[in-house]
Structures are given as C-alpha cells and as structure tokens.
Amino acid sequence: MARAQQPPGKAEINLSGQWRFQTDSLDEGVTQKWYTRELKETVTLPGSMTTNKKGNDITVNTPWTGGIVDSTWFRDPAYSKYRVPGQVKVPFWLQPGKYYKGAAWYQQTIDIPASWKGRHLELFLERCHWETSVWVDDQYAGMQNSLATAHTYDLSALLTPGKHKLSIRVDNRVKDIDPGENSHSISDHTQTNWNGIIGKMVIRDKPAVYISDVQLFPDLKANNVTALITVNNISGKPAAAKVTLQAQPGKPATEKLQPVTAQEQVDKTTVLKVVYPMGQHPALWDEFHPNVYSMKVALSSDQPGTDESRVLFGMREFSANGTQFTINGRPTFLRGTLECAVFPKTGYPPVDTAAWMRIFRICRSYGLNHLRFHSWCPPDAAFEAADRIGFYLHIECSSWANQSTTIGDGKPLDEYIYEESRKIVKAYGNHPSFCILLYGNEPAGKHHTQYLTKFVEYWKQRDTRRLYSTGAGWPLISESDFNSTPDPRIQRWGEGLKSIINGQPPRTDYDWSAMIKKWQHPTVSHEIGQWCVYPDFNEIKQYDGVLKAKNFEIFRDQLEKNGMGKLAHDFLYASGRLQVLCYKADIEAALRTPGFGGFQLLGLYDFPGQGTALVGVLNPFWKDKGYVTGKEYRTFCNAVVPLVRLPKMVYLNNESLSVPVEIAQFGPAVLTNATPSWTISNSAGKVLFKGVLDKKDIPFGNGIQLGNINVALDAVTTPSRLTLAVNVAGYTNSWDVFVYPATLPAADPQVLVTQQLDQKALDALEAGGKVLLTLKQGTLKADKGGDIPIGFSSIFWNTAWTHQQPPVSLGILCDPAHPAFRQFPTQGFSNWQWWDAMSHSGAIKLDAVQKGLQPIVRVIDDWVTARSLGLVFECRVGKGKLIVSGIDLLSNREKRPEARQLCYSLQQYMSSKAFNPAAVVSAAQIRALYE
C-alpha cells in the first residue's frame, strides 16, 4: 500500500486515498491492540463504510438509529413480502445497501519529513461519525466525539521523523452521550448513522510558535473589527511574537485598508487583542449585499518559521429591535426552511462549497433568505457558501433531546451541549451567515427550561455576534433573544379538522397579532406547513447513490395492487397544487402579521424519514416535482410581497368584493413613488376589473396599508373562478376567488334530489328516472368510508407519526372538462371552492360499491393505504340513472353557496344527453352505503 507523504511545497500531508480497514463488532480491537497489527481489508477515504460497500445486509433485525412509530411493518401480513431476507424493504426512511453500527478501524502508514522535527503537528479530520480514537504506532493519542466540528489531535510528541502507523477507531454507536435517537446529526431518518471520515484529512505542520485560533468581532458603529488571536508556543522557552493583520475585500473597494501590527511575549498560550480599522465606509454584509472580507493574520517570532491564517468575515450586525429582526439596523424578516441532513447520494453531508452554493441558490429562487439546520451543524463549506450568497443560518448543537433522552437532568448530554456549542462557535463563529444558535430541537426533561435558560444567558454574555434562544419549538423564556414556537401556523400538531384551514371557511384576513402581543422580542413560527404531496414514483430512479427509495417501491406496489397505478402522476400533480395552496396560506399569514419575526418551513424539500413525510415542493435532491416553480412560489414568499385581506373566497354576484390591500416590504431599500395596481381576471385571462391605488413611498416592515379594492360583482353573470392580482413595484401576488349567481334558474324537476334511496327514489329509478343521492354528512357507514376523516387540507406531516391525525387525504382529483362541472368551474385539483365539499362529506370506498368504479370526483387517499375513494360517482340502477354524492349538498345550503352551485351543476348535467353512466350497480349496493 502507498504511504501518505508530504506533497511538494506544502506544510501538510494529505491522508486521502486507500486505507487499511477492519470492523470490530465484538469490541476486541483495543484489548487485542489492533493498532499494532496490519489490517487486511481496504477502503477509500474520505468516505463511509456504506460508500465503500462495507457492513451487513438489511434485515428485520437491523439495529437502526431512530424511533420507529409505524412499527406495523414488523408484523403486518400485508408487509410480509418486504421482510423476506435479501429482499427487505422498509417504509420508515430511505434504505442503505449496507448497515453497520459499532466500532471500525481505519489504518494508514505515514512518512514524517526530517524538517518537521520540533514543530507542531496536528491531525485534522474534517468530519467524523462519530467518536474517534487515535493511535500513533502503539501510543494512544486521545479520543474526540464532536458531531459538528473537525476532530483535531496534537501529535507533536508522537510523530517523530520517519514512518509511523496511524490507526483511527471510529464508533458510530450512541453510548453515554445520547443526543437523541432522532437527532439529524446521527439518525437514520435522514443522513443515516454512517461510520467513517469525510472532508479534509491532513497532518498539518506548523512552527513551534503558531496561531491556534482567530476570532473577529465587527463593530459597525466604530467601523472596526476586534481580533482575538490565540498564539501557542511549544518551544519550551518564551518567544517574542509579532502578528500582522491585513483585511482584503471580496471585490474591489474604494478605500484601501492598511495592515496593523501587534507584538507580545508568548510563554505557552497568549491571546492578542488587536483592533483593526475598516475605513470610513466598510462594505456591509446582508442578503442583498453579501460583501465578504478575508482577514490575513501573519505571525512571526524569534523562533524558526512563520505561520499564517486567513479568516472570512463580514461587517454585519444581526440583532433584534422590539419584535422584529434587524440586519445592520434595517428590519428584516426570516423566510426560512429546514435542512435536515438529507443527502441520498452519499448518506452524509457535502463538504464542498459548490454543493452548498447550489442549495442556497435554489432556496433563494423560492424566495427564502434563511436556513435552519435541524439538530445538526453543517461543515464549514456551508457557512462559506451562505456568506457568499447572503443567507442567514440557524445552527443547532447536534441534539434533539426527546424520546430516547432528556436535557437538563444531569446526563452526560448536558455538558456535551456546552462543549459542542463552544466548538461550533470557535470553528464557524466568524462567518457572517452564522446568525442564530440554539441547543437543538424540541427538548424534553424535567429541568430543561432551567438548563436552557442558563445556556442562553451563557452565550449572550460570551459572544454577541449572533442571537440565541432555547430550543426550536420551546420553551419560551424572557431571556431569549427571540421566540421559536409552533403556535403561529394554520395547522398545529394534533388540531386535526379543528385548525384554521380545516375548521374555518377560507379567508385571508387573519394573522397572529393577538398571539404575539404578549412577547417583547421577535417570534419565529416553528416548522410551519408540513403539507404532504403524493409520492413521485419517477423519482425512484434518481436514487443512484448509497440510499434507495424502497419506501416508494412499497407505496407504488400498494397503488398498483388497488388498480390505480396509472393515476400516480395525476395524484402527484393534484395533491401538489393543493400543497402549494396550503403553503401559500401559511406563509401569507406570517407575512400579514405586523411586527412578526419570520417563519421556518417544514419544509421546502421532502423529509424522507419518520415514516416518509413528503412535505416538500422539492424532492430530497432539491429538484422540483413539476407542479410549481420558484417563480410562482416567490409571488407569495419573497422580500417584498403584496397581500390582501379577503374576508372570504366565495361570493355571490349580488355582493361586492371589498378588500384591504397591504404589503410586507423587507427589500434592500425603501420603495419610492410606488403605485400599486390591481386586476381581476377570469379563468381565460380576460381582465374584468382593474384599478390603481395611491402612489406612495413604502418603508420597511409589514402590515403597511396600501388602500382598498371595492368592486361590485353584479357584472359576473356566470359561475366563475376569478383571479385577483396586485402589483407593487414589479412584485405581483394573486388569489383565486369564486363568484356564483345569487339566483339560479329552476332545476329540472325530473331529477329527484334526495338524501336516501327511499321508496320514492326507487320508484323513480325503476321508471327509468334520474336520481341525485346526496348523503347526509355522518350517515356513510364506517366500513364504506365513513371512518375516513377527510378535510380540505392535505395530510399534515404523515399519518404514521401523527397517529392518523386527520385529514388522511390529499385533496380531490377530477376532470375539469367533465360536463358535470359546466356550472361549477373547477380545476383538476382542490381550490378554495372545494373547502365546503370536503368539510361536509364522507369519502366513499368505491371498491366497496363495485370493484374498479370510476368516480366523477375522486379523493386522493394516503399513499400508505392507497384506497380508491370517491366523493361523486354515477351509475345505472335498474332502468334509471343515479349520481351518488358523498358530499351533503342539502343541509344548511342557504349558507353554503358552493353546495348550492355544485348541486345545480350536477342537476344540469343529469338533465343533459351527456349523462350516460356505464357502471351498473344494484339498489342494495347503494343502500348498503348508509343503512
């Protein structure tokens, strides 16, 4: 095997390449001194055991890391074929080809040049998973266990010139320190509990007097940077050290910055404090102007050799003013999503800047400016990419202390969080993108509030470069710089059909003002959205790395088994459009709230774990799924967003549309002389109404009133879907509203409308008549679909981890060109006019009526069960023709214009020649639905 040697002209040895390797499943390596023997297998590093195809085959006994709520897979006969050895498929998360949990040994032979004698030699391993122990020949060098930062070992005393055997034991088990089995730093739910070493792997050579740390603290008021430079001396005698600082802008600047020099005597370790002037007009850093500087720190001393460090930083101040965040004194609004360590190609995060630049560019294309790293911390490349593109990062200390552990109760995790946070701030604290630090996600523990209060106080006193709070989601304490809470969102955990979006008629005039008025600092809504979409089975082929979408294969099998395989793409598109509508409602509610701090989506891309949570408009590769673009998404999620406060979304044409117009304005500058304009168009794109509002300068903030739109709708004489669009300074947002005639013509009396097949209805059918059976809500039998709780929204998170929280469906699918909808205009998916139907109906199990029955309106079921469900279907019964509606179209219809209009549209269809059902069903089968 080739030995790792010093590259010409470089003061480091690159350790990338082939390593000797052996697993240690019985924990024998230390006692048997494997560090003294030659290991026989080989792997390539950087990499993991999985990328090297090492480990065990997946079985029903694979010791996964992560909570499994949907445990029926282990015993349900329906999953038996997925438990066959060699053909195992799990639905919980993406599935690796091999799996290993335990100790594994990696070994390399290195050559130390004679010129390195007496110098500081450091082993640098950029990212390890998880605990590493190091031996040089037969000498133990120590253990490290950071999940967030590089493992570095001082090997100065062990690496004498010549050949050495370097042995690294990596252990990926949860042992004394349990950050939480679902933490994305370690869990198989997302990045996988991999075993290996990735990123930069080097032995660094430094002089006896060297720089060990540089921390930069910008001061915008004084236009300077305070540098704290830690200098170490291992020569054994005092040394006179001189440091020279030189800041360089990332792009040409009008002011030339001068070097600053400081000198000090160094015995062992000294921290030099140097104030560096940044000129009269330093370039500030923010999302619109990501101006990055590089600080070169050069060290010389009266000992041989020099040292140099280059540090990226930005002149920025991210803080809070009242209930809103500010960047360099200007109000800003966090428009964020989560990054949950989802990397299907490798099973671990990328360590190159280009990969992270791609992610941030995609996020920006969807109108975002913020990324929260849920219970993990990314590599340095992510910070550098965020610096250069202008993204605000929320970092967590590798932990979700819930379920398998708690925090604040005296466990080893308590001290580990402090250690991890100090390492994170030391490694990444200079990056201007590093704006927020929390312990982690949704804590549990009897004393977690007291613990996290002290944690926040500790960091507020120690480092003012960013903001601090407790845990993502809770607890809320006055000591935090801001709140993170799940309360301000349109569907909270466990609300089911009682949430705003499912329990109240659609409107856009609500906000969270009453909720946040009791707090004095900014509030960020925690994990809003969580709206699901149907799986994209075409995505399966994209999984050409270490993780495979075996979960999708299971769901595809279920859909095909139930005879609906050809509907997969239609289900994806229709549920996707509903998903977008739900996210728009969630995001706009946050933007409408005056003084609000921001939101964090869950999420912009799918979460493939926890039973599969398909909550993204993007897939785990950050690719769109074909039903919404970034351009459309930015209309309601952007730095500047026009907004309206519609009291309802459905009108009669004897009403007026009267709506206040406002704006959320967090752009780079005040919008001067802006003239808001608006249009109302029909579905063909014809403008029916238009107008302008008063010209004005629009300052920073939200809840900024622009005026009112008032339109009498009596000119809308046919049932219509109208689109209200508002444009302000080139930013356009739009909303669909529905207008129906206040007075309807008399329906065909030959169509009998009834809520049960009584004798009158049976007689009509026997006589060759037409019957519209509209089932009264609550009468559909449980085994026919009455036990399926449906609502307007799509599934929240998923049905497994919410224990079947309703709704368990993903909206409707229909053919908008079907003649049944001539008087009830619709798209092929749920829009606001379907809220009433979904809130007054039962989903009929079509196969319980007749196998293969095709409905006029289909309900898209949860992908796990994939049942064929319908709201409206047609058939022949005896000599007559029948439409069955699972929607109650009669009860309280005077207050339900949508129900009245849909009922009329169905009646008109039934009166036409187009009404010619093919399916033949007996009266007994129909009556069995509700009797």
From TrEMBL:
GO terms for biological process: lactose catabolic process. Keywords: Glycosidase, Hydrolase. Residues 322-467 form the Glycoside hydrolase family 2 catalytic domain. GO terms for molecular function: beta-galactosidase activity. InterPro entries: Bact_Beta-galactosidase (IPR050347), Beta-gal/glucu_dom_sf (IPR036156), Galactose-bd-like_sf (IPR008979), GH (IPR017853), Glyco_hydro_2_cat (IPR006103), Glyco_hydro_2_N (IPR006104), Ig-like_fold (IPR013783), Ig-like_GH2 (IPR006102). It catalyses: Hydrolysis of terminal non-reducing beta-D-galactose residues in beta-D-galactosides. Pfam families: Glyco_hydro_2 (PF00703), Glyco_hydro_2_C (PF02836), Glyco_hydro_2_N (PF02837). Residues 14-203 form the Glycosyl hydrolases family 2 sugar binding domain. Its EC number is 3.2.1.23. Residues 209-316 form the Glycoside hydrolase family 2 immunoglobulin-like beta-sandwich domain. The keyword GTP-binding does not apply. GO terms for cellular component: beta-galactosidase complex. Belongs to the glycosyl hydrolase 2 family. This is beta-galactosidase. It comes from Chitinophaga rupis.
